[in-house]
Design goal:
The chain contains ten helices and eleven strands. The protein is α/β, with parallel strands linked by helices. It binds NADPH dihydro-nicotinamide-adenine-dinucleotide phosphate (NDP). The site of NADPH dihydro-nicotinamide-adenine-dinucleotide phosphate has 25 residues, from helix 10. Catalyzes the oxidation of 5,10-methylenetetrahydrofolate to 5,10-methenyltetrahydrofolate and then the hydrolysis of 5,10-methenyltetrahydrofolate to 10-formyltetrahydrofolate.
């Protein structure tokens, strides 16, 4: 029978471990503080920001909340980031993306100090990951590695195929699998024979942003399938990039949507906040 990789339980385990670490740090007088900035009031962003603040409260991390109006200028946002970069009481800075169109997202990402870049999006963080140096790692792919490790799935020596090459999921995912000694192939929209490449995978990570695209015909018997996608289907039910019904008939292990990769992203953000005391 297919093994269900349970992101809800694993993310709770991680948050509970972090809660203990934060309590120990607090007993030594070390406080951890995350500054969360949201510009505008996009409802999806408000839900994400709310969940991040809730997770901070659960673990014992202080959170500073900046809810800025939609018309905030790029200059004003950069000034706030600069102030928070210089504030020794702030360990992590997170700007909820996307920002309104009149603000240059790249400029904002680069303005956050790499020492406080808990999202792991700064070019310095990405570079550190590529050359195996300490730095913050993008939360969703870091969460996938935890799902695999904590579910007893060996990565070293395995054929790993990642579908998707975005800066926040696909590319860092491939780097992390490589760091774990997987043999890694990255696929994208120009890949020829996608099915054949996917069928080589012992571990298939799917981050394409296309609802239920990957069915059993892409999957080798017994492979591990990690579904990063999140969508609403025609019945308004959550689904992933993988057709779970079909894929779970051939996969050896698989993440559900919801309850797979999704809850891991916030858990790893919390991990990065705690880890900020080690990144210098
Ligand atoms: P992007 O849209 O940035 O990237 C999608 C990637 O998939 C691109 O590299 C694209 O290739 C590739 N792709 C698209 N169509 C095909 C195709 N037909 N065949 C092969 N490759 C294809 O998406 P993200 O990486 O940001 O996100 C991927 C999914 O993960 C989304 O569903 C998103 O909602 C979800 N997500 C979930 C998170 C979570 O916490 N669970 C966090 C972040 C994202 P090309 O580069 O050639 O265009």
């Amino acid at each position: 029978m297919v093994q269900l990789i349970d992101g809800k339980t694993i993310s709770k385990q991680i948050k509970d471990e972090l809660k203990e670490q934060v309590a120990e740090l607090s007993a030594k007088g070390v406080k951890i503080c995350l500054a969360v900035i949201q510009v505008g009031n996009d409802p999806a962003s408000s839900v994400y920001v709310g969940n991040k603040k809730k997770a901070c409260a659960y673990i014992g991390i202080d959170s500073l909340s900046y809810e800025l109006p939609e018309e905030t200028t790029e200059k004003e946002l950069l000034e706030l980031i600069d102030k928070l970069n210089k504030d020794d009481a702030v360990n992590g800075i997170l700007v909820q993306l996307p920002v309104p169109k009149h603000i240059d997202e790249d400029k904002i990402i680069k303005a956050i100090s790499p020492l406080k870049d808990v999202d792991g999006f700064h070019p310095m963080s990405v570079g550190a990951l590529s050359i195996g140096q300490p730095g913050f790692v993008s939360c969703t792919p870091a969460g996938v590695i935890q799902l695999l490790k904590r579910s007893g799935i060996e990565i070293a020596g395995k054929e790993c195929v990642v579908i998707g090459r975005s800066n926040i999921v696909g590319k860092p995912m491939a780097m992390l699998l490589l760091r774990e000694n997987g043999t890694v192939t990255i696929c994208h929209s120009k890949t020829k024979d996608l099915k054949e490449v996917c069928k080589r995978a012992d571990i298939l990570v799917v981050a394409i942003g296309r609802p239920k695209m990957i069915d059993a015909s892409y999957i080798k018997e017994g492979a591990t399938v990690i579904d990063v996608g999140i969508h609403r289907d025609e019945n308004n039910k959550l689904c992933g990039d993988v057709d779970f019904e079909s894929a779970s008939k051939v996969a050896g292990a698989i993440t559900p949507v919801p309850g797979g990769v999704g809850p891991m992203t916030i858990a790893m953000l919390m991990h990065n906040c705690v880890d900020s005391i080690n990144i210098k």
